[in-house]
Specification:
By secondary structure, the chain is an alpha/beta fold. The protein is built from 15 helices and 20 strands. It folds into three domains: 288 residues, 3-Layer(bba) Sandwich (FAD/NAD(P)-binding domain); 105 residues, Flavocytochrome C3, Chain A, domain 1, CATH 3.90.700.10; 88 residues, Up-down Bundle (Methane Monooxygenase Hydroxylase, Chain G, domain 1). Helix 3 crosses helix 4.
Length: 539
């Protein structure tokens, strides 16, 4: 379909917001008879999926079992996982992998010269067996590239790159008795043209990823700004466990490296964590040492850094054969070379960094949210899979499984477009162009700094209250700015990050215990009964 530049209203059957593994999989598995709009905030392939190194967890080895994968996930989740959801995802993992293999994803083999050799499975933190299928150390890129190519070939999918959603459009349901409204589309900013468009759809799928950019240090790209979580909350959707953020234990510490994680598979293949004096320390924290779940490893590194006042620690695999390192970690090896680090001979300087948003929009097993017509899949959603800490390589699995479930639900229950009231066009008649963009950039920096200082791995009630006070002031300033000036990409992301930060702080204040990654000095022990932290919007 050829779209005219001046057109601002776009009707579709399904609107998919986000183009990572979750969004692409959803779009591909929707009925070809449905007209689908796929929005990407940047280029189609840009997102957290593209940078995912480790792999996808699935029971593929005869020595492994569904029960083992389930139990490992429950253990890593520290009591907050929903066992029925975990089993739902794990049981569908093999089928999801088989679909990717059929699609042409080049997963690594035990013998790289033999295309018929068994797939190479690695072991990562928290897994009791080798069950992580991967494409060298760039699995996300392989998956994203394959799915992107398929999407571009689908005639029923229209791709809108460099489009950022502003807000969901909701309308009351017939005979509404105080129930949440139904979603009928979204206002979307066409970034190159700085024009707001109306996308109408009877089904909207949020696949926008997490909110790791709320912290100063993160392994994720700049687009991870919590857009979907913030939009769903403003529209009336509940969220859960927003205080639970996973910090990747080993991100590269280097002044010129903006964000680069060193895959957990390095530890899975024997890599050792070292203090600056090159001594081991993980045996003091867990019997599994470097193969403990991420929450334990990240907290141990954070503890040792603070104990000795170190800027970073080290991850070392240089004792392995150089050819093995270059074959299994080619992307990491080449990237480190750019910074003057040779991982075949040198230890790698590392720090923990915000990596994954474990909480999110509450959904059922089909990705349905509280709002009629709204689905959420991938990192943006709270399904109950991850609990208090995500086990390694369960994230892409979640994207694939729940995207397929959501697409199937839409396909099975696909009435004609729901009649709606007329949707008003975006009104910019009372706004002006701002000459104070410095306000946005300053607030952005301030937000990420106090979230890192006050709402990080180790927390106190006083720190959280200080953060709460700052976020209230910041949101007032953002609201005033938003109401007076023409919107921009940076302003929208700041608005969303501030909303997500508020939800994180509120949830953290409600959790009166230490569980998973986060340690609260005021409440060092676990409560007897693990409970989700659920927030309900006042809409």
């Amino acid at each position: 379909m050829t779209l005219q530049k001046h057109v601002t209203f776009f009707p579709y059957d399904v609107l998919v917001i986000g183009s990572g593994a979750a969004g692409l999989t959803t779009a591909l598995q929707l009925d070809p008879a449905l007209r689908v709009a796929l929005l990407s905030k940047s280029t189609l392939d840009e997102g957290s999926t593209l940078y995912a190194q480790g792999g996808i967890a699935a029971v593929l080895d005869e020595a492994d079992s569904i029960d083992s994968h389930v139990n490992d996930t429950l253990n890593a989740g520290d009591g907050l996982c929903d066992e029925s959801v975990v089993r739902f995802a794990v049981e569908r993992a093999r089928g999801a992998i088989e679909q990717l293999v059929e699609a042409g994803v080049p997963f690594s083999r035990t013998d790289s010269s033999n295309p018929e050799a068994p797939f190479h499975l690695t072991r990562e933190g928290g897994h009791s067996n080798r069950r992580v299928i991967h494409s060298a150390d760039a699995t996300g890129k392989a998956v994203e590239s394959t799915l992107t190519e398929q999407v571009r070939q689908r005639e029923n999918i229209d791709i809108f790159e460099h489009h950022i959603a502003i807000d969901l459009i909701t309308q009351p349901k017939q005979h509404d008795h105080g129930e949440p409204h139904r979603v009928v589309g979204a206002y979307v900013l066409n970034r190159p043209q700085q024009q707001v468009r109306v996308f109408q759809a009877s089904r909207v799928v949020l696949a926008t990823g997490g909110a790791s950019k709320v912290y100063l240090y993160t392994s994720n790209p700049d687009i991870s700004t919590g857009d979907g979580i913030a939009m769903a909350w403003r529209a009336g959707g509940r969220v859960a466990n927003m205080e639970v953020n996973q910090f990747h234990p080993t991100c590269l510490y280097h002044p010129n490296a903006k964000s680069f994680l060193v895959t957990e598979a390095v530890r899975g293949e024997g890599g050792k964590l070292l203090l600056p004096n090159l001594t081991h320390f993980m045996e003091r924290f867990d019997d599994r040492k470097e193969l403990a779940p991420r929450d334990i490893v990240a907290r141990a590194i954070d503890h040792e850094m603070k104990r000795i006042g170190a800027d970073h620690l080290f991850l070392d695999i240089s004792f392995k054969d150089p050819a093995f390192i270059r074959e299994h970690f080619p992307m990491v090896y080449n990237r480190l070379q750019q910074f003057g680090i040779d991982m075949t001979s040198d230890p790698i300087p590392v720090v923990p960094a915000a990596h994954y948003t474990c909480g999110g929009i509450i959904t059922d097993l089909e990705g349905k949210t509280d709002l009629e017509g709204l689905y959420a899949v991938g990192e943006v959603a709270h399904t109950g899979l991850h609990g208090a800490n995500r086990m390694a390589s369960n994230s892409l699995l979640e994207c694939l499984v729940f995207a397929a479930a959501s697409a199937n639900a839409i396909n099975q229950n696909n009435p004609p477009s729901v009649p709606t009231d007329p949707i008003p066009a975006w009104d910019e008649s009372r706004v002006t162009d701002s000459d104070e963009e410095v306000v946005v950039s300053h607030n952005w920096d301030e937000l990420r700094r106090f979230m890192w200082d006050y709402v990080g791995i180790v927390r106190t009630t006083k720190r959280l209250e200080r953060a709460q006070h700052r976020i209230e002031l910041l949101q007032q300033e953002i609201a005033e700015y938003y109401s007076h000036f023409r919107i921009s990409n940076n302003l929208l992301e700041l608005r969303n990050l501030a909303q997500v930060a508020e939800l994180i702080i509120q949830s953290a204040l409600q959790r009166k215990e230490s569980r998973g990654l986060h340690y609260t000095l005021d409440y060092p022990n676990k409560q007897q009964q693990a409970e989700n932290t659920i927030l309900t919007p006042n809409t």
